[in-house]
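Lecture notes, unit on protein representations.

Consider one protein chain, 133 amino acids long.
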Amino acid sequence: MTSQTTASATTDIASRTDIERLVNDFYGRVRGDDLLGSIFDDIAHTDWVQHLPKMYEFWEGVLFGVAGFRGNPLAVHRDLASRVPMGEREFGRWLALFHTSVDALFSGPCAENAKARALRIAAVMQHHISSLG
């Protein structure tokens, strides 16, 4: 958990600032997680200074249609899956932590959309990674 979960979940996701709060809270949870933390820090060697702004852009595009994200998340995750298990357990935990962050900070249609979109993203990623085998 991070200190950014102190706000009550009474407002919806409505701005880039909200997305930044969500992403920061979520990745704080990920980094502290016994399953996912080592994947991001020890195996992927995530550069958080670069990664977090990319994720702000990604989610701003997903939720608000704002262009700006550049990258190929599927290729990155496929490469990572060649070095560490990335299956139902890992994607399930990712999704649970994302939902926890959304629910801790926001409520409303956009928050529900974020959770639904995360579910679809996880399913697509998992499908494409499992088809490598």
